[in-house]
Write a structure and sequence with these properties.
Strand content: 25-35%
Structural class: alpha/beta
Helix content: 25-40%
CATH topology of the largest domain: Quinone Oxidoreductase, Chain A, domain 1
CATH superfamily of the largest domain: Medium-chain alcohol dehydrogenases, catalytic domain
Number of strands: 15
Amino acid sequence: MSRALIVDRPGSHRLVRRDEPVPGPGEVLVRVAAAGICMSDREVYDGHRAASYVRYPITPGHEWSGTVRAVGEGVDPALVGRKTVAEGFRACGVCERCRCGETSLCGGGYAETGFTEPGAFADHLTVPARLLHPLADDADLRAAALLEPAAVIAAAVRTGRPRPGERIAVVGAGTLGLLATQLLAAVSPARLTVVDPRTARGEQALRFGASESLVPEEAAVLDGVFDLVVETAGAPSTAASSCLLARRGGRVVLTGMFAPGADGIDPVHLSVSQLEVRSVFGAPSRAWSDAVRALGTGLLDPAPLITHEFPLERFGEAIDLVGGGDPKTGKVLLRP
């Protein structure tokens, strides 16, 4: 038997027991070790995610790690027993964008594990074998559950093109911001400033490699200073404020998920300052490879971000913590 958490509609969930799933051709069956809960999952539960990006009823869970239990027809049986993660976007692999390596921009239509396809808030899930990123035999599956947000940040770092000796700012010290701090510290910047109103998160950023931590009011005096600004907060003001922090000719990468009504970027400032502004939504295959390598080599250690772990039966308690505003709450995991 296998259990799965199902959100039938916003605000309504149930834990069901069913036969263990069987992988189809080209698929693998994974025994889930850990699954992270993020704000996107909270949006699904609250009914705040755009209708085109969720399909009810749904088993959420797009941040996860596990072990391959069985393989379907046409899949290498040597994968059985391997620790693994997998890309969430079910990219078609044949459209123009996919063939250019931009799998997060797939033109075949949106499909993603945990949003339109059954996710990892379950004992088992099936995924296409082509999306797997196998891990080392000694990989920490608890930490590896955070490789999905790490891949998003790896995509942001690729996009931002940081160079040794640059002045870099990270706006936001949540999960994405702290993972960004670790990866950017490895580039040896001259200055790595993390901006967040929560002083406890700022202190954690210092332990993750930041050279300084500032609240937004303190950072405002540094407008025009930074070569690269990586925005991770998705707060109403942070896209605009990130552009102000960048020097003339600087680079800004937006990774936060913004709600309608967020402050706009001043087009006059954007034009006169000749800023390069890019955005990241999800992660292409190459960014997943970057994140998995960073974990394997020790450049990335997500484990200190985890503050709470719950069994599937306590999903209600777990989802209440996410987005609840307590600065002591970091990454929340479900452990099936």
